[in-house]
Design goal:
The protein contains 22 helices and 23 strands. Helices cover 38% and strands 15% of the residues. Helix 4 crosses helix 5, helix 14 runs antiparallel to helix 22 and helix 15 packs antiparallel against helix 16. The longest helix has 20 residues. The protein is of the alpha/beta class. The two termini are 39 Å apart. Keywords: NAD, Oxidoreductase. Pfam families: 2-Hacid_dh_C, AP_endonuc_2. One of its GO terms (molecular function) is glyoxylate reductase (NADPH) activity.
Length: 583
């Protein structure tokens, strides 16, 4: 559990004074309020506060807004300030009606507005959480749960704080009821009438609260709020009690480094919420052009998270900007373009190639089975010549029983395809000089040469690693051997094919089919015969992770980070030796 201070505790103090207090109290970070210190829409102030916190080594835990999802309120300025702060979470209020006073229409409107806010914030990797407060829908656990369930958005969470007007037993029941959504607790000691007390006087109560939280499996932030007399001395004393209640944990500092625009689709709101439980990860995407600007953030970063668009850094750049770095988590496939300088410096590299392999294997397996039925040219014949011609074409196809299927390359993707083909009555032949006989036996596959595969297989699917040694390896001598009605599928890389040789073989026998998700160049040049040949099916490189599927890669990197930080064996680490043969 990360510890912090909410700036509304000291509305009369400056930003610098609050930062100094948080440092003296040895807290992990600060929740900045939108009422005084970081007004909604004032992005210059927000950016200045962000820079000061980074320089002080403090995490910005959240942005405490006063957005209540009311008809006259605009969420856009709140979101703008939150983005400028680089926060992982925005606190909002759950309307201004209690559960027993809100009308059905007002409730539906409130839920819809909060859903819009949660969705808008999710586009920038920022969570939204409800203030747990009297006079709103979160006055009771029943009201809070009703609203959270009605909004039903994966990016919506809630805070919790003790209500002095209800019993201790009811407070514990509240924690249990809202635990699936719990992200933060406001820590203070009040009694009825909102009378403030030193936290030391309620150590027993807070021990029970935190035990209930631990039993739920959650690790919410513990943010201090409201101290006796609004004094710094009371605050520092309360901080000492908080540290005793929740012993300080090691904070693992991380950063995003990526030139691409898809990072926050790869690391979606669910994944980011879980990452926040194990690392300090500001919602600031550093690029190769802004490394100097964010040098203080990168200096302390032990872990980098990235995806497509990871810049290729030199060893000198790594030494200058990332002196504390221990590992890079790459939420995409191949790391060939950037990994070596990191590995040479002893920095570990993890890739989501296993996650990216899944949709490719699913796609390739589906195409293989459809190819066995002659599906692709059948559709073309039906469209241009009618049903009879389509049927006559499929009469020359064997179907998916007792045929041979060739798999080129038995790496991660090739093996996944072979595993999926084990449930079909087909024989699989594999070309891969590096795979062991034991692996092939476990996959019910036989080793074969390229010549044998192209000569004997009904369908051939390419999954060979993209390396300099594999460029142009599939030539006319191979394609000319294929059966009259065979299908070649390429979801690997186009550069492995001598395309004029493949085109020649396809022109010589129009019943041969090529399904090409990749070409070289990509897309084919306008004058390429591939664009007009009826026995060529082109798709725009869709086999790999796309749309919702890209979030699987972020989840894989979350799991790798969790394993690394807890000393468990990792599954997707890349070594220098592996770079010699992997894509």
């Amino acid at each position: 559990m990360k510890t912090g201070l909410t700036s509304v505790t000291f509305r009369q103090k400056s930003v610098d004074e609050i930062i100094s207090l948080a440092q003296k109290a040895h807290l992990d970070g600060i929740e900045w309020g939108g009422d005084v210190h970081v007004p909604a829409g004032d992005t210059d102030t927000a950016a200045s506060v962000r820079e000061k916190c980074i320089a002080a080594g403090l995490e910005i835990l959240s942005y405490g807004s006063y957005y209540k999802a009311l008809p006259d309120q605009d969420f856009a300025p709140v979101l703008a300030s939150a983005r400028a702060l680089g926060v992982p979470m925005i606190r909002i209020w759950a309307g201004n009606c209690t559960p027993d006073s809100i009308s059905e229409d007002a409730f539906r409107t409130l839920a819809a507005d909060i859903r819009c806010a949660a969705e808008s914030a999710s586009q920038f990797g920022i969570a939204v959480a409800l203030e747990y407060h009297r006079g709103t829908m979160t006055q009771t656990k029943e009201g809070a749960v009703r609203l959270l369930q009605a909004v039903d958005h994966p990016n919506l969470y809630t805070y919790w704080q003790p209500n002095p007007d209800v019993s201790m037993e009811e407070r514990l029941r509240e924690i249990q009821a809202i635990s699936p959504w719990l992200r933060c607790c406001h820590v203070f000691a009040w009694t009825a009438g909102n009378e403030r007390h030193p936290l030391a006087e309620q150590t027993g109560e807070w021990s029970q609260y935190l035990e209930a939280v631990r039993q739920s499996g959650k690790k919410p932030n513990l943010v201090m709020e409201f101290v006796c007399g609004d004094s710094a001395e009371s605050f520092l004393q309360d901080a000492e009690i908080l540290h005793k209640l929740s012993p300080k944990e090691t904070i693992h500092r991380a950063a995003f480094l990526c030139n691409g625009a898809r990072l926050l689709r790869v690391y979606d709101s669910r994944t980011l919420s879980e990452l926040d439980q194990i690392v300090s990860l500001p919602r600031i995407v550093v690029t190769s052009d802004t490394m100097e600007e964010y040098a203080p953030l990168l200096k302390n970063a032990e872990y980098l998270f990235s995806t497509w668009g990871m810049p290729a850094l030199t060893g000198e750049q790594i030494e200058k900007y990332l002196p504390s770095l221990k590992a890079v988590f790459y939420g995409a496939g191949s790391v060939q373009a950037f990994a070596r300088p990191f590995l040479e410096k002893g920095i570990r590299v993890f890739s989501a190639w296993g996650a990216n392999a899944i949709p490719v294997a699913e796609y390739a397996t589906a195409q293989i089975i459809l190819a066995g039925k002659g599906f692709f040219q059948c559709v073309d014949h039906y469209r241009h010549e009618g049903r009879k011609a389509a049927r006559e074409f499929t009469d020359h196809q064997p179907g998916n029983y007792n045929i041979r299927i060739g798999i080129l390359g038995a790496g991660m993707i090739g093996r996944m395809v072979l595993e999926r083909l084990m449930c079909y009555d087909v024989e699989t032949l594999v070309y891969d000089p590096f795979v062991s006989d034991a692996v092939l036996e476990s996959l019910h596959a036989k080793r074969a040469s390229l010549t044998d595969i192209f000569r004997e297989c009904q369908v051939i699917s390419n999954h060979i690693a993209n390396l300099p040694s594999t460029v142009g390896m599939l030539k006319y001598e191979h394609f000319s051997l294929t059966k009259k009605n065979a299908t070649f599928i390429n979801t690997g890389r186009g550069a492995q094919i001598v395309e004029e040789d493949m085109i020649r073989a396809l022109q010589e026998e129009p019943e041969r089919t090529a399904i090409l998700d990749v070409t070289f160049p990509e897309p084919p040049v306008p004058e390429s015969p591939l664009n007009t040949m009826r026995n060529v099916i082109l798709t725009p490189h869709i086999a790999g992770s796309m749309n919702n599927e890209v979030a699987r890669m972020g989840k894989y990197m979350l799991e790798e980070a969790r394993k690394l930080l807890t000393g468990q064996p990792c599954k997707y680490e890349v070594t220098e030796k592996m770079l010699e043969t992997m894509a």
